[in-house]
């Protein structure tokens, strides 16, 4: 346990602390879905640090302390989290979620996020989406899309735009945190051999009723063509 809190790693510090052998979150027994999610959520950003400290109404203090003291703080301090710490969290999720396979099976990251954010920590949904006139709240957006022959090594920006277009989705409001699950996971099939991270994400065209420029005349657009 590391009881002292550390800020997320940035720039040169991130490279120095996180690069090399025995860095990151140690994998064990199909934990990759959780390891990757936790690393993405906490290693270099503080946007979800409220999950670690805030006394939410339904918050499970034990899970919160394991997440903070055994995973996030060690990751930010030394760049390494041992598999035993993640297994401790998985055991607690198994107990709270009434699902025995959290400790040994490969799971969908969205299932993990929904369990820990909604059922255990009780935080409000991060995303408000609209599809076909119906609004829905969720914690992350999982990219579903048909295979695109022209997308061999895509950027995240391209995948998000294709996904929203094909699913007729719009963001109702600018999200405080936009968690996106890539279409690359599982043992049997990976749609892309690699995906290039977009360091900035332009969501202008994804926002519902957002004023945008007409590509013909430059004035405020009144029509949108998919």
UniProtKB/TrEMBL annotation:
GO terms for cellular component: microtubule; spindle. Keywords: Cytoplasm, Hydrolase, Microtubule. Residues 24-203 form the Peptidase C19 ubiquitin carboxyl-terminal hydrolase domain. It is found in: Cytoplasm, Cytoskeleton, Spindle. It holds the Pfam family UCH. The keyword Hydrolase applies. GO terms for molecular function: cysteine-type deubiquitinase activity. GO terms for biological process: protein deubiquitination. PANTHER family: 40S RIBOSOMAL PROTEIN S3A. This is CYLD hydrolase. It comes from Grus americana. The lineage of its organism: Eukaryota, Metazoa, Chordata, Craniata, Vertebrata.
């Amino acid at each position: 346990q590391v009881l002292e809190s550390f800020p997320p790693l940035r720039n040169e510090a991130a490279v120095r602390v996180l690069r090399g052998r025995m860095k990151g979150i140690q994998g064990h027994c199909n934990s990759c879905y959780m390891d990757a999610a936790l690393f993405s959520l906490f290693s270099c950003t503080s946007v979800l640090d409220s999950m670690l400290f805030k006394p939410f109404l339904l918050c499970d203090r034990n899970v919160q302390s394991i997440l903070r003291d055994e995973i996030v703080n060690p990751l930010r301090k030394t760049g390494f989290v041992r598999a035993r710490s993640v297994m401790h969290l998985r055991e607690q999720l198994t107990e709270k979620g009434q699902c025995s396979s959290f400790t040994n099976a490969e799971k969908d990251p969205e299932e993990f996020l929904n369990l820990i954010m909604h059922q255990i920590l009780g935080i409000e949904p991060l995303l408000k989406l609209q599809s076909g006139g119906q609004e829905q709240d969720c914690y992350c957006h999982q990219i579903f899309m048909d295979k695109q022959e022209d997308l061999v090594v895509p950027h995240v920006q391209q995948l998000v735009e294709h996904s929203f277009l094909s699913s007729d989705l719009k963001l109702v409001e600018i999200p405080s945190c936009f968690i996106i699950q890539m279409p690359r996971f599982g043992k049997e099939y990976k749609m892309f051999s690699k995906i290039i991270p977009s360091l900035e994400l332009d969501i202008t065209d994804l926002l519902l009723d957002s004023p945008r420029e007409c590509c013909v005349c430059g004035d405020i657009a009144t029509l949108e063509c998919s």
